[in-house]
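Figure 6 in text form: structure in, sequence out.
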């Protein structure tokens, strides 16, 4: 049926989103994960790096629900604190990448000419290389830390949103409302910031949401290879490193399965939310 008249586009989008059961489930799961990460000291029985060397590689029991790792640290505690790192890397790297991509994509789309040529050739050059090739070089140069992992992901991931924004602005910059803004004497940066970017917020929001999931997966992959977040700082990625050992893989599933499950459920929830936002913000969709 047609949407009720008199409602703002954002109110319609909100109503559509909350009618999507999978999107709501994903949002609830993400909210729980984020609050668990924020309140990790309250929810965990030990400090982040607490060790009991007498219980190295011990399995789960009634007190330590997820057992111990190969140096005697409580895996449940590390899992909750690891959520802080993995979620922070995903969110912050996406914010940085989106800011860079929207800025450069807007400049390329609106100004065209030389600016467009330079920016898009840079985008094409970066996208020619597989992510892990660039990541290995940058990680070897900068070092394996949380901050550097964020920079590495952001330095590569901005290219996709730049192309999306450029394409949208190319189609919008000749519209009547932009011509009217020019006729009123607005500066070019005012037209971009006040008129063009607000009109491409829907694809930016959807892309950014889905990109968080990609960034979390990339962090997990880098940390698994020893190129991302390094010990003793926990992340879900470097907790999966124990799966490289055949002994742990076969006989100690508690050391790697919880981290793998957290990556899986987080990425799945983000994808549900992203799909819900895509459907909710699509002006052509009638429910």
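Output sequence:
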């Amino acid at each position: 049926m047609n949407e009720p008249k008199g409602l703002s586009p954002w109110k319609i989008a909100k109503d559509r989103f909350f009618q999507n059961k999978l999107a709501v489930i994903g949002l609830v799961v993400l909210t729980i994960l984020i609050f668990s990460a924020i309140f990790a000291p309250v929810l965990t029985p030990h400090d982040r790096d607490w060790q009991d060397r007498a219980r190295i590689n011990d399995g789960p029991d009634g007190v330590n629900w997820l057992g111990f790792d190969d140096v005697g640290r409580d895996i449940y505690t590390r899992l909750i604190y690891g959520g802080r790192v993995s979620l922070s890397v995903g969110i912050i790297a996406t914010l940085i990448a989106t800011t860079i991509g929207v800025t450069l994509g807007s400049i390329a789309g609106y100004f065209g000419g030389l600016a467009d040529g330079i920016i898009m050739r840079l985008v094409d050059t970066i996208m020619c290389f597989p992510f892990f090739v660039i990541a290995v070089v940058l990680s070897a140069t900068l070092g394996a830390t949380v901050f550097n992992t964020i920079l590495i992901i952001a330095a590569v991931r901005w290219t996709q949103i730049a192309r999306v924004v450029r394409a949208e602005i190319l189609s919008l910059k000749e519209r009547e409302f932009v011509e009217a803004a020019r006729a009123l004497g607005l500066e070019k940066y005012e037209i971009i910031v006040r008129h063009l970017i607000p009109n491409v917020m829907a694809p930016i929001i959807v892309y950014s949401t889905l990109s968080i999931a990609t960034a979390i997966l990339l962090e997990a992959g880098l940390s698994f290879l020893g190129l991302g977040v390094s010990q003793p700082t926990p992340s879900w990625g470097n907790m999966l490193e124990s799966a490289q050992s055949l002994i742990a893989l076969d006989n100690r599933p508690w050391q790697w399965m919880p981290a793998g499950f957290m990556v899986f459920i987080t990425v799945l929830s983000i994808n549900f939310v992203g799909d819900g936002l895509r459907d909710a913000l699509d002006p052509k969709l009638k429910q």
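Caption detail: The chain has one domain: 29-280.
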